[in-house]
Specification:
The protein is of the alpha+beta class and about 350 residues long. The chain has ten helices and nine strands. The strands form three sheets. A five-stranded antiparallel sheet has the order 1-2-3-5-4, with helices on both faces.
Length: about 350
C-alpha cells in the first residue's frame, strides 16, 4: 500500500499550542462529507512557519486542514478564503493544485477560519531527502529541472478564463511590492535587527524598466512540491498558495532563489537550508536563472534586482515570524534565532548589490 511507503511525507503529533477542537472539526467534516466514517485522528505537519497544516484521518478518508496560527496576524496575511478561492480557480488550468473540498468562515468553530482539501500522497523534498531515497547525479538534475519546469509552466498559464485575473492591480507591481515589504519590515522591526534602510532605498531606486505580468506562486520552493513515490523526480503537486497573485515572473523566481542554498554557500546559509538544492546534480542559482531564461525566452541581462528583492522579502518574512516569538505570541523554539537570519539576509543583499557595482 502506498500509505506504508517510507518515502511518503508524514505528519507528527500536534503541538500543544496548535491543538484544535477535535469534536468540532469532526462534526464539520462529516457535515461536508457524509460518507466519512469513524473517529478523527489529528496530526500536524511541523515544517511551515506561516499557516498551520494538519492531517485529518478517519476510518475511510484522509483530508488536509489549513488555518492561521493563534496570535496577532500581519495585515492581509493568513487570508484563508483567498487561498481557498485561488486554488479552486487554478485547479482546472494548472492540474498540480490539490482538489479543494470546503471553506469554513465561522471563526467560532475552532477560533479562526480554515479550509479542507484533498491529501496528496507523495514525497516532499525538504531539507534532506528521505533516507531511503537515493538519487544519482543525473536523477537529481532531472528533479531540479522538473521542479523549475512547474514554475515555468505556472508562469505560462492563461488565467483569462478564470477569476484569477481579478487579483491583478494593474501596472506598478514591482513598486507596490518594494513599498509594501518595506512597510511590513518597519512595523515588525525589533531592537536587535538592522534598519535595512540601504537595501530598501536601493530597491526603490532600481525598479526594473520592463514590466512583465502573469500568475505567480510567490513562495515556490522544493518543500512546496509533491513527488510521486513511483518516480521520485516527477512532480504531482504544488502546495501553499497563500501568497499567490498576478505579478512579475522574475520576482517570483527571485523569491524562489532566496531559499536556494547551494553546495558552496557559507556556513550560516547552510544552517537555514530547508530544501535539497545542495545535492550533486542540482543547478546553482546562476544556472537556474540561465535555465529559466532559456526555457521562457526572457532575456535577463542583470538579475541583481530580483536577487536582492527575494532576499529582502525573505528577511521581512523571517522578521514577522520572529516578531511573534519576541512578543511571546508563540513559544515555538524554532523561531528563537530568526533575528540572526534577518541580519544575515540584509548582509547578503548588500553583498549582491556590491557585486553588481
Amino acid at each position: 500500500m502506498i500509505e506504508d511507503n517510507k518515502l511518503l511525507d508524514k505528519p507528527s503529533n500536534v503541538r500543544e499550542e496548535d491543538a484544535l477542537d477535535l469534536d468540532a472539526v469532526s462534526r464539520y467534516v462529516k457535515e461536508q462529507q457524509p460518507e466519512v466514517k469513524g473517529e478523527l485522528r489529528l496530526k500536524q505537519f511541523l515544517g511551515g512557519a506561516s499557516n498551520l497544516t494538519y492531517q485529518l484521518d478517519f476510518d475511510n478518508a484522509t483530508f488536509i486542514l489549513r488555518c492561521p496560527p493563534v496570535g496577532t496576524k500581519a495585515k492581509g496575511a493568513h487570508n484563508m478564503e483567498r487561498e481557498f478561492r485561488i486554488m479552486k480557480e487554478l485547479k482546472p488550468v494548472y492540474p498540480y493544485v490539490p482538489k479543494m473540498i470546503a471553506f469554513c468562515n465561522n471563526p467560532n468553530l475552532i477560533g479562526r477560519e480554515f479550509y479542507l482539501m484533498e491529501k496528496l500522497n507523495g514525497i516532499i523534498p525538504r531539507a534532506n531527502l528521505p533516507r531511503e531515497l537515493s538519487l544519482s547525479r543525473q536523477q537529481t538534475r532531472l528533479l531540479c529541472t522538473n521542479v523549475l519546469d512547474k514554475l515555468i509552466e505556472l508562469h505560462q498559464v492563461d488565467i483569462q478564463p478564470t477569476g484569477l485575473k481579478e487579483l491583478s492591480k494593474g501596472s506598478g507591481y514591482a513598486s507596490r511590492q518594494i513599498e509594501g515589504w518595506s512597510e511590513r519590515y518597519k512595523k515588525a522591526r525589533t531592537w536587535n535587527v538592522s534598519s535595512c534602510s540601504y537595501v530598501m532605498s536601493w530597491l526603490k531606486d532600481h525598479l526594473p524598466e520592463e514590466e512583465r505580468s502573469c500568475f505567480i506562486h510567490n513562495d515556490f520552493r522544493f518543500d512546496n512540491v509533491v513527488l510521486t513515490p513511483e518516480d521520485p523526480v516527477r512532480v504531482i503537486g504544488v502546495l501553499d498558495w497563500e501568497m499567490a497573485t498576478v505579478g512579475d515572473p522574475l520576482m517570483d523566481l527571485g523569491n524562489s532563489l532566496a531559499y536556494w542554498v547551494q553546495a558552496d554557500d557559507d556556513f550560516l546559509m547552510k544552517q537555514v537550508r530547508r530544501q535539497p538544492t545542495h545535492l550533486p546534480g542540482m543547478l546553482s542559482r546562476k544556472e537556474a536563472v540561465a535555465y529559466y531564461s532559456e526555457k521562457t525566452g526572457f532575456q535577463i541581462k542583470d538579475f541583481t534586482f530580483y536577487e536582492v528583492y527575494g532576499l529582502f522579502r525573505l528577511a521581512v518574512i523571517a522578521q514577522q515570524i520572529y516578531y511573534r516569538y519576541h512578543h511571546k505570541q508563540t513559544s515555538n523554539p524554532a523561531y528563537k534565532h530568526f533575528w540572526i537570519l534577518v541580519n544575515y539576509l540584509n548582509w547578503r543583499c548588500k553583498r549582491a548589490i556590491k557585486g553588481r557595482t
